[in-house]
């Protein structure tokens, strides 16, 4: 889950996550480092077109309302590790588009910086959902366990193992009116697989 600096001045909320908002200062600092790569995707875009969702050990995560897209800029991981993660994430997204949030496309710059693209999804991770709602109802818990169980069963049938299922890697997607909620699996950094035509990954 992306971590943001704390401050009394915050950027406008993103509809990717209701609760993970980064400070304006963090937004400006991250843009200085990674703005050039995002501008390469949309040449006429400016900092105001993007919103920083968070920063992590491997890079930064951004969203843009114009294209309903999320971008993850990888800068602090080995190129080989990023490549394997992206290949597996794209494959999982292709076979389970309604059950996971994986990368749809990626853009590589000089084998040093990679920008991965994901679909924008309204919601929050399970950890924050529990905190904000002071728990989870039995009905929702049973429903999400069934959804995640089915997702993992399908992945295992393809010899793909997530290896990092936790509250922070379960994203609760909400409909526009917040009347429908669905649990989706995210973050395939530690995935292992023996599926043919996919690179072998171990945590």
Word description of this protein:
With 203 residues, the chain is an alpha+beta fold. Helix content is 31%, strand content 25%. It contains 4 helices and 11 strands. The strands form 3 sheets. It has a 5-stranded antiparallel sheet, sandwiched between helices. Strands 4-10-9-7 form a 4-stranded mixed sheet. The chain has a two-stranded antiparallel ribbon with strand order 8-11. The longest helix is centred in the last third of the chain and has 20 residues. The radius of gyration is 17 Å and the shape is globular. The N terminus is likely disordered.
Low-confidence stretches: 1-20
Sketch the topology as an H/E string, one letter per element: HEEEHEEEEHHEEEE
- Tell me the Rg in angstroms: 17 Å
Number of helical segments?
Answer: 4
Strand order of the largest sheet: 1-2-3-6-5
Broad shape: globular
How many beta-strand elements?
A: 11
Helix and strand composition category: alpha+beta
Distance between the termini: 18 Å
- Please state roughly what percent of the residues sit in beta strands, choosing from under 5%, 5-15%, 15-25%, 25-35%, 35-45% or over 45%: 15-25%
Helix content: 25-40%
The major sheet is characterized as:
5 strands, antiparallel
Overall residue-averaged pLDDT value: 78
């Amino acid at each position: 889950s992306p971590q943001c600096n704390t401050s009394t001045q915050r950027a406008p909320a993103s509809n990717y996550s209701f609760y993970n908002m980064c400070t304006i200062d963090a937004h400006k600092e991250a843009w200085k480092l990674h703005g050039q790569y995002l501008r390469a995707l949309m040449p006429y875009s400016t900092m105001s077109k993007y919103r920083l969702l968070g920063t992590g050990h491997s890079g930064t995560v951004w969203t843009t309302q114009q294209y309903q897209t999320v971008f993850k800029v990888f800068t602090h991981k080995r190129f080989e590790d990023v490549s394997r993660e992206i290949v597996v994430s794209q494959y999982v997204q292709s076979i389970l588009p309604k059950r996971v949030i994986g990368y749809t496309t990626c853009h590589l710059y000089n084998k040093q910086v990679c920008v991965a693209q994901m679909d924008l999804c309204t919601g929050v991770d399970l950890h924050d959902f529990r905190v904000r709602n002071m728990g989870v109802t039995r009905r929702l818990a049973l429903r999400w366990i069934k959804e995640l169980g089915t997702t993992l069963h399908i992945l295992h049938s393809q010899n793909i193992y997530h290896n990092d299922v936790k509250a922070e890697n379960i994203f609760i997607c909400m409909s526009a009116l917040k009347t429908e909620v669905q649990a989706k699996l995210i973050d395939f950094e530690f995935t292992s697989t023996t599926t043919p035509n996919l690179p072998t990954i171990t945590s």
